[in-house]
Amino acid sequence: MTGVVKSAARVLEIFEFFAHRQGPATVSEVATALEFPVSSTSVLLKSLLDLGYLEHQPRSREYLPTIRFAVLGSWMLDRFFSDAEPVPRLMDELQRSTEETIVLAMEHALYLDYIRILQSIAPVRFHLKPGVRRPIWRAAAGQVLMAQWPTERVEKVLQAANSDPANPRVPIQEFIGVLSRIRAQGYALTEGQITPDAAMIAVAIPVGGGHRPLALAVCGPRERIRRKEQEIVQTMQALLRRSLPPHPAAPPPA
What we know:
Helix content is 45%, strand content 19%. The chain has 11 helices and 9 strands. The chain has helices at 6-21, 27-34, 38-50, 67-70, 74-80, 87-98, 140-146, 151-162, 172-185, 222-227, 229-243; strands at residues 25-26, 54-57, 62-65, 101-108, 111-118, 133-135, 188-191, 198-205, 214-221.
């Protein structure tokens, strides 16, 4: 990420680590999970301790976020989902219903950021690392967001992707047809696009207040997701209808 101050990025990654872990952790556990040097991880955690965002348990040598950490973004949930059931609770219910990995994803320029992950509770599963970033056109969660874009924007993004030799070439007109089908059926499905033998089903979450669009996804082994496709889609759509108030529909793509 060109232009990003390393120490600032690491602090935010530590925040995301604790958000996903939902429990205490030692310096070495944080450093291992985030692939940071132990020495700099220790300095960062002690700084956050001094600032009141973490507390330290000397006996176990573990750090744990304080309530100050918890309230940082609470006002945003009130703003974007003021009349809705909280999204984390919706994700919890979706995981209980499907037993699969649940992902909340956010559009970020040419990429898709996985901002919250609930790991599958099924015996056979794929593990997603917190903070994962994917090319937005490859994952179902990104495609369901792109389906809301004007065609001109889709073409521009795919042309940029195709100009990078590191990316597999995307047939633009064929992809636009895929987005048309996604709009018609109300969800996206990708299989083996990023992880072999894995699949993802995603729906868009209506968000107010000018926030970047969000997507909710269910991930798991391809054969299992394929077998349960309609059941998963019906569960996701029913939860969204029940939990989230409708927002004005986006204008149709040009």
